[in-house]
Amino acid sequence: MKAGPRAAVAGLAASRIRDVAEAGRGIDGLIPLWFGEPDVVTPGFIRDAAKRGLDEGRTFYTPNLGTDPLRQAIAHYLGRLGRPVDAGRVCVTASGVNALMLIGQALLGPGDRIVIPQPVWPNMEGIARVLGAEVAPVPLRLTNGRWSLDLDALFAAVTPATRLLLLNAPGNPTGWMLTEPEQRAILEHCRRTGTWILADDVYDRLTFDLPAAPSFLSIATPEDRVVSVNSFSKSWAMTGWRLGWIVAPPTLMDALAKLTEFNMSSVPGFVQQAGIAALEEGEGFVAETVARYRRARDLAQGMLADVPGLTVPVPDGAMYLFLQVEGCTDSLALAKSLLRSARVGLAPGSAFGLGGEGHLRLCFAQSEPLLAEACTRLAQALLHR
Known about the structure:
The protein is an alpha/beta fold. It is built from 13 helices and 14 strands.
C-alpha cells in the first residue's frame, strides 16, 4: 500500500494567494487587498440574531439539508428576486465552497469532463481535480475594457461528452457578467448536450447597473439540469460565518442530504438563525454595500487607469479590479515584490488559471481612504518597477 495522499491530492498546487499573504505577514503598514472580503464586520442585526440563537440553546445538530425556517427564508428571498424556488429544493451548506464541493461530489467522477471559463477563482478547478475530473478551460475575452464570454467558443467546448459547465458570473477575478439572452442560449445548448450547469452566484447581488445579476433560476424549470450555489459571505459581510446554500433539481436532493451528512453533518442552528436575519432584514445593508463598492470601484479605477503599462478593465460586478501589467510574466513574483515596494498585498493573476498570468487582482471592498492610499502606493511602485 502506498504511503501518503492520493496522487490527485498530492499534485494539487497550493494557493498562490495564501502564498502572498504568508509572505506579507509581519510587514509594518501593509494594506492587504489579496482576499475577497470587506473591511467591515458583519452587521449588528445579524450578529444579534446569532446571539439570540445561542441564548435559545440552538447548539444541537440540525437537519442535513438545513432548518425549515432558513430553507423557507432562502426560497422567499429568491422569489423576491424573480427566481421562484420551492424550499424543498434548497440545501443549506457550510459556506459557498462547501456547496461547490457537495455538487462536485454529486456529479463528478474520475474522467468526467468539466468546462470552466477562465480566469476564475481556483477552488472549483481544484475540487474537480481532487475528484479526478478533467478540466477544459474556455478563455474569457477582454474587449473595449470589459471581460465577456465568447459563446461560440463555449458551445464548441460543451459537447455531449461534457458532464458539467461551471459559470461564475458575476465573476471572480474579472467581474464579468452574463446577460439573460446569453443565459437562455447557454441553457438551450446544455439541454441539447445533456450537460449540467453549475451557476456560482456568490456575487449575484454585487452588481453596479442592475439590482441583481440575471439568474438561471429565473428561466430554468425545476427538472432542468441546473444547480445554483450561493453564499452569505459577500453580500452580507459574513465571510467568517461559513454559511451558504444550494438550489438543485428534486432528483439531487436525496444525494445532497447524504453528502452533507458525510461532509459536515449539519450547519449550526445559531448560524442559520443569523442567515434568516440577513435574508429578511438585510436589503438595506446590501444596497449600502453596493453603493460603497461602486464608489470604491470608480475611485480605484480612476486612480490606476492612467498608470503607464497598466490596463484596468471596468468590472460589471463583484469586488475586484483585475489589473493587466504590461511585460509581466511572473505575477506571483511581482505580487511579492509589491509587498515591499508598495506595502500593498494583491493576489497574483496566475492563481486564476488560463489568461490570468500577467495580471494582479485588487479587492476594492475597503474604506475609501485606505483604498486611495493603496492605489497611490501601487501607482508609484509600478511606475518605478
